[in-house]
Structures are given as structure tokens and as C-alpha cells.
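Subject: Predicted fold for Serine/threonine-protein phosphatase Pgam5, mitochondrial, 289 residues

User T.R. writes:
Posting the sequence so we have a shared reference for the thread.
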Amino acid sequence: MRKLTSFVCGTGAGFAAYYLQRLRDPQAAVHNSWTNSDKPVDPWALWDTNWDCREPRALVRPLRNSQPEEENRYNAELEKAKAKKARHIILVRHGEYLDVGDSDDTHHLTDRGRKQAEFTGKRLSELGIKWDKIVASTMVRAQETSDIILKQIEFEKEKVVNCAFLREGAPIPPQPPVGHWKPEASQFLRDGSRIEAAFRRYFHRAYPDQEKESYTLIVGHGNVIRYFVCRALQFPAEGWLRISINHASITWLTISPSGNVSIKYLGDSGFMPPELLTNRIPRDVKNVV
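User M.O. replies:
I've generated the C-alpha cells; pasting them so everyone works from the same file.
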């Protein structure tokens, strides 16, 4: 019994001495966080803190010397350039629509698509969000979805921003490639630059003078939303087509004051009854209104 007690005490003391030494080692202390490991991080997985070109240290004139006055100047400017509140960006895909006719003008929501938009509007109303801005793609199906949602939430239609940059398109050649969908290279070049411009327009940390958390609703399209998610989370943008989101679903991204981005919902449509869950264009036109 005495030997067992001595063994336990000795082992405990040994572990205590080991961890005490690890804590005293600054380099080892970094690895005490559960978010770190001893395995080297692949370069592509490293977070770019200046992804939105609004990292305070990139905006402030660098220190010219180590004098107290210069350090005070630098610290004051750095603090002034920092965001203080979070931005919430809620993305809604349009409802189901019919791809008939030769132009976007004929691509109206189906009855099911209108019902989907109604459920989404009710869900957004239940969340009790006070919207700072609502932006909608200029395509018919997004405009109709936006109009239906606006009937459920408190926001003046005249204040909605209509943005052509958000129109559906082919953002970037997907990986892995798919055989059933092969846009021309020129389409990727044309659409990709536009959709990337839309991302840069709407995704960034708050301005330093923003005094409260803000909420922006964007009503758009599946390809655009999926690309936005990959870009915002700094995942390989080529993987956008691996994500599937339902019609009129809700995707919620939050940009913290530090510039870190997290996702709260991805294609959430659990608030709809099962018979309304769709994600593809209906092919049986005869049975769809």
C-alpha cells in the first residue's frame, strides 16, 4: 500500500513539475489553448487578418521611432481605426421559379416559391431583427422574393437597394468539375469579376464610427451566396458548388470587430414544411404554377 501511495504521489508530482515547466515556457504556453496543436498549419489554412483591407495596422502610419510621443501617436491612431461593433449579414436565396422564356422577365416565382418566401418572411419577423439595410438582386425572382418578405418585416420598400452586382452567374470554375454544367470561360471571367465586386462591396468589418451591431439582409441567388460563404470564411472559393442551399433559405454570417468571420446559419430552411423544401428548378412545368 505504501509503495502504491509513493508511486501515485511521485507520478503526480512529476506531472505537476512537467506542466509547471511548460507553463513557464512562452513557446509551450501557446499550445495550451485547445485551438492549437503541435501539427504545422498548412499555409492555405492560415487566416488573413487583412482580408477586407481594413486591418487597423494596415491603415495607420507605422512607427517612425521608439520615442514615447511617436508611440502615443501610433497607439491613438490605431485605436481610432479599430471597429467596435459586429456586422451581421443575412443572405436569403430567392424562392422556386420557372426557367421559361428567353429572358429574365419571364422567370417568375411558382406558387410554391411564393409560399417559401412567405415562410422566410415570417421567420425573419420572428427573429425580431431591426434591419439597417436590405439589398436585393435586380433579377425578377429575387425582386419578387424581396417584395413578399417585406410584407412580413418592418422595412420601407423605398429604402431597399437594388443591386445588379448580385445577379446570378458563374463565379469561378468549380472543383471538382461537373459534367452537366459547362459555362464558357468568358462567362466565368465576366460573372466572376462582378460577383467578387459584390463580395467586396458588402463583406467587410464595421466602420470605426459604427456604434451598434448592424444587420444587413441580402436577397440573392444560390451560386452567389455559396461563393460569398466560401470567400467570407476563407475557404477555397473553387469549392462553392459543393454547398447546396434550399430556395428561400437563410444563411447568416457575422463579421466581428476583429475581422474574424463566423457562420450562424447555412441554408437554414427548417422553418418550412417538408413539401416546400426545394433547391432545383422544376422541370415538370405542367404541374407547377
